[in-house]
Design goal:
Chain lengths: ~325, ~325
């Protein structure tokens, strides 16, 4: 299929073309490949914010308020709501919630929900591609929101420049609920609902947690994941009120500070290199897995191996080695 | 390293050898490969129960009660507590909790906690290997307990013969909390704390959910995942009380019923074939990913590709294709 017409429309800032291209990259990895191939040279202008928080932390109101601030500054904003836990509903409804809540028209805001369903090659892969489409669409800020559970979010946040985690006073275990992998890549902790008692206690909890994890994270993360951590960025903490907008100025200053840090400290290039590596690895894993799955499901030699494993005259590791030999990958 | 001494002790039913072999397969995939290679022909005797439930559903009391029943029947039981969300603490403490709670000695019970930390090749891979060790150790029943979040559990449960999901009355959203992928592979739903009001309401909720999902699951799961679903097993529902032990007889009957079903309906062979396929695929993914990661991190040609992607004269998909060519995998 030829996507040049749609891509031309995308480059001209046509929101309908954005929506159609996103659906294409979500559902068809061959289309994704062709589309990204065609638009890649236009990417690289957007700043990507990863935002997460446990249920009840007020993510949608927070994102709504932040979006309005950026929109008032004349910025074009893309919002991607990723819900890996929801294959059935087709994703979160943040988009609708924001639209309903706000009277003023957010014509410079593009909102898209993504769920697990139909995500060929993984949600992280699809999210990367949607980020690129919104980037080429001309978004200055792209917000990637996830529900904050498990490894898939960590993968998704590899494409974010700044990672913001939302916590609330009182919810005693929300720090635990945010999975460890995400805590380690968080740049800014936001304590939402600062009017509630316990906001300062929560800040103290975060500080304590940061101290505790500091030693752990260096040994547990892979080298490439450590680049930002080792680059001396100390996670910032800020308390805000998403309903009144209190302290959002401070928050956006912190985001700018982190952005400056990334460029000034020279880690941006390393960061981008690692992002590309990780993205390519995702694509490679998908392609190679598909190839191997295809081989396993049809090849008569593999059927013979399977029989041997079922007879216990071969074990799965040895079978894997034989397949690697078969693939010429030794 | 030579593991033959440890393996001989394992075959003789030495619990210390079990513990040491588990540590080895957890931390060293080469050791895992050698150990599984040596013991594989002795596997295949244990019945594997996958048990999950949301936090607060009372998993540890439930498993404790079930274990006591099986122990009284003279069965040897292995319990593996898998907590993929806890890289820091080193896993759940169910083992200790069970030990503390029960006065009588469970000398035929082997308990092991596993967490993400140090799981080379993935928690699912390591869990499969630990299951095999406990199988060879002579366990009649192996209980694999997980916290019930995300895709990793679905992978872990691929090795279970019967999947049991624990729910409780009142907790309105625990059905949602159990991720969709697990609901689809559940064989027996257990409503714990049946003395609480709302137990029958919960059963009605489960039935409704099952009806809703019935159509969805056939289209969303892969063919091999559908084998059991298409084999006409209708998920059973039972309400129990883990503290008094009420209805546990009925529960164990349902487990036996499912076990009979698996063998009588002839799906066991298909099931085992798919289990081996999925396990081999896990190992293959790990091995190939390692190879590709190694290539990406050191190869000068890849560095050149990376530069091109950073210059936007190449996109990640095209880079992936070039690497596949480089690997001779086209």
């Amino acid at each position: 299929m030829d996507y040049s017409d749609l891509i031309q429309k995308l480059l001209n800032g046509n929101a309908r073309a954005v929506a159609r291209l996103i659906t294409l990259v979500e559902n068809d990895i061959v289309a994704a490949e062709n589309i990204i191939n065609a638009i890649y040279s236009h990417t690289g202008n957007a700043y990507i914010l990863g935002i997460t928080g446990s249920p009840g932390s007020g993510k949608s109101t927070f994102i709504s308020t932040l979006t309005k601030i950026y929109a008032k500054q004349g910025k074009k904003i893309g919002i991607i709501c990723v819900d890996p836990t929801s294959p059935l509903t087709g994703g979160a409804l943040l988009g609708d919630r924001i639209r309903m809540k706000d009277n003023f028209s957010l014509k410079n805001v593009f909102i898209r929900s993504m769920a697990n369903r139909g995500q060929l090659g993984g949600l992280a892969r699809a999210t990367e591609d949607v980020v690129k489409i919104l980037d080429v669409y001309g978004c200055d800020i792209i917000i990637v929101e996830t529900v904050g559970v498990g490894q898939s979010e960590v993968d998704i946040f590899k494409s974010a420049h700044s990672v913001v985690v939302l916590l609330v006073p009182g919810l005693g275990d929300d720090i635990q609920a945010i999975k460890a992998g995400i805590m380690e890549i968080t740049d800014i902790f936001v304590v939402n609902k600062m009017d509630l008692s316990g906001a300062d206690k929560k800040i103290a909890d975060i500080m304590q947690m940061l101290e505790l994890r500091m030693n752990y994270k260096y040994e547990s993360l892979k080298d490439e994941e450590n680049i930002l951590l080792k680059s001396n960025w100390t996670p910032e903490i800020v308390k805000i009120n998403s309903i009144t907008g209190e302290n959002f100025e401070k928050l956006t200053e912190l985001i700018d500070k982190h952005r400056d840090f990334l460029s000034k400290s020279g880690v941006m290039a390393d960061y981008q290199k690692n992002r590309i590596k990780s993205e390519t690895l995702q694509i490679l894993k998908h392609k190679i897995t598909k190839k191997v799955e295809g081989l396993i499901s049809s090849n008569p030699t593999i059927d013979e191996y399977l029989r041997l494993v079922m007879d216990k005259s071969l074990d799965p590791y040895s079978m894997a080695n034989l397949i690697i030999k078969l693939l010429g990958l030794e």
